[in-house]
Amino acid sequence: MKSRIERLLDGQDGGNVYFISGYPNIFYYSGFTSEDAFLFIAEDTRILVTDSRYTVQAKQQAPEFDIMDISEGWEKIFAAVHHTQIGFEENKMSVGSFERIRAHAAGKDFFRAQNIINAPRRHKDNEELKAIADAERIGDEAFSHILKYIRPGMTERDIALELEMYMKRSGATDLSFTTIAASGARSAMPHGTASEKIVENGDILTLDFGCVYKGYCSDMTRTVVVGRADEMQRKIYDIVLGAQMAALDGMRAGMRCSEIDALARDYIAKAGYGDKFGHSLGHGVGIEIHESPNFSPKSKDVLEEGNVLSVEPGIYIEGFGGVRIEDLIAVKDGKIVNLTYSPKQLIEL
User: Fold this and answer.
1) 62 vs 9, 58, 216, 229, CA distance in Å?
2) Are 30 and 67 in contact (CB under 8 A)?
């Protein structure tokens, strides 16, 4: 398999150099684990720019790169870059920073290259797939743990903190995103981050959480009922689970991602709740929690080897609550592999 840099440069103009300023791609292409850096990558160029706090770290983590100290000045740095066409990450640099840097790049022309630079990350290699699977395993174990911990009278924040501590004690270095713990009517908010609301008997409780392990994110959602579920809660839960299974069972490598989204969306619509499922079916997951490709009605993507995406249908009813169930899937050796192992039958606590 080609290296990540080879995949970036494959088919591109050999006269271009890529100027990388955002942490996800700095880490992806160099292995350097600090945001205080810039990369220049071309066929004959591997330069990592950082400051004196990180030069030793950079030499250890990015041995293929020439290390330059930013204190040397941008004129000297650009003098070491012999290319005149510079592709930059337009989504990862402020206008002010870009203008300040460009002022020191006499004779250089800049062009937007975010999509080119991001493209190789869509297809995870075996090392990346293992890191994501291990991160998801930590999430699965955290969910098993939290089921023994939840009880009426706790706040959503209590539950979220316990989840987070468990993941970090299990080897996670960070959270993938702010933990969602939304109970009762608040579960109708898809991004209802944990509050001081007290969890009551009979509440729906939606938990959406993830962690970072070896630089890669996990993501999963489970919805439980604290106490006994009523008829409406069971009905909505069963519809969401049926929609997720329709997508999981029906998806194949080579399908358009919009078609996969429709498998779940049509299931929910036929059950009469199409207007209560407003977000996309899923998103790519990797170094960032939201990456390409995506399962959505307007997606132009095709499900391909090495893709990792969430599959997370939901129904959200104001004043009642909501249900979401989310797994991570990967395409490996042409097959769909579910990386999430937590049970999906309705759990009553």
Assistant:
1) 18, 5, 18, 53
2) no
137: helix, coil or strand?
helix
Residue 205 resides in a domain: yes
User: By percentage, how much of the chain surpasses pLDDT 70?
Assistant: 100
The pLDDT of residue 247: 98
Structural domain boundaries, residue 16: 4-121
Contacts of 58 (CB under 8 A, 6+ apart): 32, 34, 37, 48, 50, 65, 67
**Residues 6 or more apart from 145 whose CB is under 8 A from it?**
162, 163, 166
The answer to whether residue 347 sits within a structural domain is no
User: How many helical (H) and strand (E) elements, i.e. helices and strands, does the chain have?
Assistant: 10, 19
Q: Are strands 109-112 and 85-88 parallel, antiparallel or unpaired?
A: parallel
Find the length of the chain: 349
Query: Quick one: pLDDT band at residue 14, thresholds 50, 70, 90?
Result: confident
Bond from prior residue into 293 cis (ω within 30 degrees of 0):
yes
Q: Are 32 and 61 in contact (CB under 8 A)?
A: yes
User: What digits encode the pLDDT tens for the residues 166-188?
Assistant: 999 999 999 999 999 999 999 99
In this model, does residue 5 exceed pLDDT 80? yes
Does one domain contain both 73 and 183? no
**CATH number, domain containing residue 327:** 3.90.230.10
Residue 313 CA to residue 40 CA, distance in Å, equals 40
290-349 pLDDT tens trace: 999 999 999 999 999 999 999 999 999 999 999 999 999 999 999 999 999 999 999 999
Cα separation, 11 vs 14, in Å, equals 8
Q: Is the CB of residue 240 less than 8 Å from the CB of residue 323?
A: yes
58, 37 contact by CB (below 8 A): yes
Which DSSP symbol is given to 119? G
How far apart (Å, rounded) are the C-alpha atoms in residues 341 and 305? 21
